[in-house]
Design brief:
This protein is of the alpha+beta class. It has five helices and eight strands. Helix content is about 40%, strand content about 20%. Strands 3-8-4-5-6-7 form a six-stranded antiparallel β-sheet. The chain has a two-stranded antiparallel ribbon with strand order 1-2. α1 (about 5-40) crosses α2 (about 50-55) and α2 (about 50-55) packs antiparallel against α3. The radius of gyration is 20 Å and the shape is globular.
């Protein structure tokens, strides 16, 4: 038995190293896959969990009131990603997310995971659309015409309808 103990310990150490390596390899594959889907590089300091979760939603069709990958609207998307990534429950409507769940920040202060709010042609000066800032002026949102997609804050439509950014009261930085 004394001779078997070192072998058992070595076997456990080697198997746990392999398990750990497989987990790391799997995570790296998920990050690379997310980068390809999102269309930009994901770096070491980026919020990997946010990027992976966002990539998983891409292409989901738009559905008013929707909250699942079968169909989602803009605030349903932000609710789902925040719950999954940050374990934070946001209000269900975009206007309520702005009013109840965040404090306003300037566009120049945006960080990964911040909410981005816009007016819409029918909302006047009020919040009508929400997305989540990813990086490099890109954000994920649920477009009524194209479903869940990544857009640039620099596009003329989003520049014209920009309202503000929002940092969640409850999300840890």
């Amino acid at each position: 038995m004394k001779r078997l103990l070192p072998l058992i310990i070595a076997a456990l150490l080697l198997s746990s190293c392999r398990t750990q390596r497989v987990a790391v390899d799997s995570r790296m594959r998920a990050i690379v896959h997310a980068a390809v889907k999102l269309g930009f590089d994901i770096e070491e300091h980026d919020d990997h969990q946010l990027m992976i979760a966002s990539a998983e939603w891409l292409g989901t069709p738009y559905a008013p009131g929707g909250t699942t990958k079968r169909g989602v609207d803009c605030s349903g998307l932000t609710c789902a990603i925040y719950k999954d990534v940050y374990n934070v429950q946001l209000s269900r409507r975009s206007a309520d997310q702005l009013k109840k769940d965040c404090y306003r920040i300037r566009r120049s202060k945006l960080q990964e995971g911040d909410l981005v709010f816009f007016t819409t042609p029918g909302s006047g000066k009020k919040c009508g659309h929400v997305g989540i800032y990813l990086k490099g002026d890109r954000f994920i949102h649920a477009s009524t015409s194209r479903g869940v997609m990544v857009s640039s804050l620099n596009e003329s439509f989003w520049n014209k309808h920009w309202l503000c950014g929002g940092q969640s009261h409850r999300r840890k930085r």
